[in-house]
Specification:
Family: Belongs to the ABC-3 integral membrane protein family.
Keywords: Membrane, Transmembrane, Transmembrane helix, Transport
Shape: globular
Number of helices: 14
Membrane topology: Multi-pass membrane protein
Distance between the termini: 42 Å
Number of strands: 0
Pfam families: ABC-3 (PF00950)
Subcellular location: Cell membrane; Membrane
């Protein structure tokens, strides 16, 4: 299986593009996902990943690159959710549900208007094997930009993630770093559409980070491990999906889930087997 993939990898340019793109997405999604789960914002990641759908549809209708509309609508959704939560008695989960469902419904309608069912399938479930050179290099560029931003603002994001009240006491603008994270989350979600689609993006953000959390209490170590797990899941999923001619995005997500399941039983934090021995 691996031998056939390696042989084709050196022969087919599209497979090289898929490898680089999937790996880059896995790495950057793993890094950003750490802040998402520490802030308890898993639902926000799911909402934004689905909210980009109407933006993609609008881009198709206007004849512009899908990234333009997807990022714009993703940011709009995050701002709407935050505004509703901060300026009403509606709780955050309800605001997310209202915005998420509305944007998703709008996206499906606009895709129907564009008469592009094939594009809708690729948007929902991804098609990393169809990535072109421009998209590949754009993804790699986004990887470096996002990682650089995370390094520069690591301490403020760390403090505002663990204790927002203390951050406010220090005079930090908590909302500023919240919106910064929302921008990064939106950009990563849009980029990840190429590999796993809007339906499964949240898994790329949450699962590697959750797995890494089982092994360490340090955020820096967690980010490194999560990025490694995200990249590894992407590579393994790509190999399996290409070799057996099945959906690559789904293979990536399932690989990540299997790594989490194994880690759940083996990690020092869980000590599942040790607890069973003690009880026995």
């Amino acid at each position: 299986m691996l031998g056939n993939f390696i042989h084709d990898f050196f022969d087919y340019h599209f497979l090289q593009n898929a490898f680089v793109t999937a790996t880059a997405i896995g790495i950057v999604a793993g890094a950003v996902g750490c802040f998402i789960i520490l802030r308890g914002m898993s639902l926000m990641g799911d909402a934004i990943s689905h909210a980009v759908l109407p933006g993609v549809a609008i881009s198709f209708l206007l004849g512009v690159n899908y990234l333009v509309g997807a990022i714009a609508l993703g940011l709009l959704a995050s701002f709407i959710i935050t505004y509703i939560s901060n300026n009403s008695k509606i709780k955050n989960d309800a605001a997310i549900g209202i915005t998420f469902s509305s944007f998703l419904a709008l996206g499906v309608i606009l895709i129907g208007v564009a008469n592009s069912s094939t594009d809708l399938f690729h948007i929902l479930f991804g098609n990393v094997l169809a990535v072109q050179d421009f998209d590949k290099w754009l993804t790699v560029s986004i990887l470096f930009i996002v990682l650089i931003i995370l390094v520069i603002f690591f301490k403020p994001l760390l403090i505002t993630s663990f204790d927002p009240n203390m951050a406010k006491a220090f005079g930090m603008n908590v909302n500023r770093y919240h919106y910064l994270l929302m921008i990064l989350l939106t950009v990563v979600s849009v980029t990840a559409m190429q590999s796993v689609g809007t339906i499964l993006i949240v898994s790329m953000l949450i699962t590697p980070a959750s797995t890494a959390y089982l092994f360490t209490n340090r955020l820096s170590s967690m980010m490194i491990l999560s990025s490694i797990l995200g990249g590894a899941s992407s590579i393994i999923g790509l190999v399996i999906g290409y070799t057996f001619n099945i959906a690559v995005g789904s293979c990536i997500v399932l690989t990540s889930a299997i790594l989490f399941a194994v880690s759940f039983f083996l990690s020092p934090k869980q000590n599942v087997f040790r607890k069973r021995v003690v009880r026995a």
